[in-house]
Amino acid sequence: MNRKLTVSLIIALLALALAVLALASVIILNEINFSNFNTIKTLQQTPQQTPQQTPGSQKPITGTPSQLIKPIVTPTPIPVSTSSGTILDSSDIGVYSDSGCTINMNSINWGSVAVGGSVTQIVYVKDTGTSMMTLSLGVSNWSPSTASTYITVSWNQTGTQLSAGQSVPAAITLTVSSSITGVTTFSNTIAISGTK
Q1: Where are the domains of the chain?
Q2: Each residue of 16-53: pLDDT tens digit?
Q3: Is the pTM here over 0.70, yes or no?
Q4: Burial of 93 (0-12, 13-18, 19+ CB in 10 A)
Q5: E strand or H helix at 18
Q6: CA-to-CA distance for 56 and 2, rounded, in angstroms?
Q7: What is the CA radius of gyration of the chain?
Q8: Selecting from 1.10.1740, 1.20.1440, 2.40.30, 2.60.370, what CATH number does the domain 80-195 have?
């Protein structure tokens, strides 16, 4: 009899503990919901701050996206339109436009070169004599004379030695300075020579 009473008492205590836990959970949930409600209510009641504008100080932005966003335009350099440069060869040296060295080349047409740019032409130089020759290149007769301040002519065969009958391709490069002013056309004389 005492044992049954003890078991009943334990069951009653467990039921009471569960009831207390359930009540505590309800109270906690109500507190959380009430806190959230107060936060939302506070946010709803807080007036939005709008910046004060002085009448006429700012104008509204109007227009389509394409009108509002302006593309960045990089100016195209003004090209230097060049006339043909005259090519002079020396005794026992020939300058040709073809690798077979059959078409004599007396001038170079550089075309238009952008400011700050360069252009390269390939010519063929041949030793037409009977002895070894050392190649060199010189530029003169600039017109206008100020063109030589901003424009240079160079090649890749200075000091090259050719034996009799031998030919070599040469790259002649014209370079225009990015600071060029007052020159849109020019001419010059390019002398390709050989020394024994």
Answers
A1: 1-42, 80-195
A2: 777 777 776 666 665 555 444 444 444 455 455 555 55
A3: no
A4: buried
A5: helix 2-45
A6: 94
A7: 46
A8: 2.60.370
